[in-house]
Amino acid sequence: MFYTEFYNLIKQKYLIYALVKRDIMGRYKGSIFGVIWSIIEPIVLLIIYTVVFGGIFGLRLKDDPRLSSYALEVFCGIVVWLAISEGLNRCTTVVLENTSLVKKVIFPAEVLPLKVVLAAVVHQCVGLLVLLLGTLLLGRGISWTWLLIPLLLIPQILLTVGIGWLVASIAVFIRDIRQAVALGTLCWMFLTPIFYTEDLLRNAFNGKIAFWLTANPASALIHNYRRILLQGRLPDWPMFSYVLMLGIVFSIIGFWWFDKTKGAFVDVL
After folding, report:
1. What is the DSSP string of 82-141?
2. What is the pLDDT of residues 111-151, one digit of tens each?
C-alpha cells in the first residue's frame, strides 16, 4: 500500500506543477510589487544582518575581510534558509487551509506539503538569481559549479518535504505544532552559521559544540551552496552524502506517516 501511494505521488507531477503555479500566483494576487517581494525579503534581511553583524560587531571572513564578501556569504545563507524555514512553517497549516480538497476522496492530500516546499524553492531560485547579479556587479564572476545547484536541491527538497509531511499530519491533530515549528525554526536559524562564520561556531564553548556543524543538515547545505556559488569549488561530498541520506530517511518516514494518518483527517477537520 505504501509503495503504491508513493508511486501514485510520482504520477501526480502535472497536478503538483499546477498547484505550485497556483500557490505562487495566488500569493501575489492583488499585490503591487508581485514576485518582487521574493527579492525584497532576503535583501532586507541581508541589510539588517550585514549592518548588525558585519558593521557593528565587525564579523568578517577570515580569508577575505571585505564587507562585500561577507554580505554575499550572508545572502547565500539567507536565501537557502528562507526556503527551508518557509516550507516547514507553511506545512503546519497547508492541510487545514485546504480542507475542501482533503475531504475529497480522490484528491491526493500528500501533494499539499510537497507543493508548498516546491513553491519555496522557486522563491529561493529567484534569490539565487539576485546573488548571481551581485557576484557579477562586485566583479567576482561566476563558475561552472553554479550548474550544480539542482544537485544540492535534491537533498534539500527531500529533507524539507520529509519533515513537512510529518508536521503537516501532526498539525491536523495537534494545532500547537504550528507555534512549536515556528519557535523551532527560529532556534535552528541561530544555531546555523548564516550570518556568522563557521569558525565562530566551531570555536564556541572551547569547541564543545563543533560537532553541530556537521550534524546540522542546514549547515551542511549552506556550506555546500557557498562552495559552489561563491568559491567555485565542488561540494563537500561527505556533507552532501550525509544530507542526502538524511533527506531520504526523513522523506520515507514522513510520507509513510502522512499516508498512515491521512485517513483520519476528515474526522478531525
Report:
1. HHHHHHHHHHHHHTGGGHHHHTSTTS-TTHHHHHHHHHHHHHHHHHHHHHHHHHHHTT--
2. 999 999 999 999 899 889 888 888 888 777 788 999 999 99
